[in-house]
UniProtKB/TrEMBL annotation:
Organism encoding this protein: Cryptolaemus montrouzieri
Protein name: ATP synthase subunit s-like protein
Family: Belongs to the ATP synthase subunit s family.
Origin: domain of life: Eukaryota
Amino acid sequence: MNSSLSIILDRFTISACKNRHSAASIIRLYSERKSDLVNPNSSSTKEISKKDYEWRKSWTEETTHYFKTLRIFYTERNNVEVARWLQAPISFSPSSILNWLKNKEKQKDIIMQSYIPERNRILGNELAAAHFVVYRGGAVKFHSQDNWIKADENGEYSLPENYVRNDYLEAIDCSNMTLYYEGLQNLRNLQRVNWLSINGCENIDDWGLDHIVGSFYKTLFYLDLRNCPSITEKGLTALWKMENLKILYLDDILRTNEYEMTILMLQDHLPHLEIKVGDFAEDD
């Protein structure tokens, strides 16, 4: 009897809370449920489903047109960002304002470098990557051409605006570009790139280098990693996959003991790899 009473009370509480009855309605509902104690097999007993124990959906998960419209102004990170902003100390010093402006500019650049599937569907992977690099101050070279393509002092450059069949990129020069990990997504699915330089790309770190290795480990034989302070020995360990890599440019192989040991292990695994150090090394 006690167990039956407990079950009835649980059902009563769930139903009352879910439907938000008034006090009079709750008393009347409880009186009706008391009859279940006399006849537990009564047909009036309601089966409790798993759905009755589920939490109410967040408004961001609603599928109606009204909520879909509001969803445009809301992201999953909003709650975290607002909480972080509320907990951070408020400072109106010139340095704090300058850092805030830099962070906003960085977020803008990251958004602008995001991968756009429509661009690749229209131009193809090779030409879309070429437009992405040249527009941001880099240079590219196709297998079918002898000259490098880059923008002039007015930011203008000559690249096809429609898909060109069987025209593959051979070399990509991203030297001194403001390039982020998100921008590397635009360099994927390139078939025959064998020359790549990210010299001076200070925002590329170990994760970015790992992405580069995953994209070009079959074709790349030249890689320039000079002036990339965010790349450590942890990122260099991914280079063991690049069996065709023949020339690697670095700043200083004696940066740390771990860095030097990683270089030695890399040379042992890739005996044909030539590592050149410093800015004074002559480019091939």
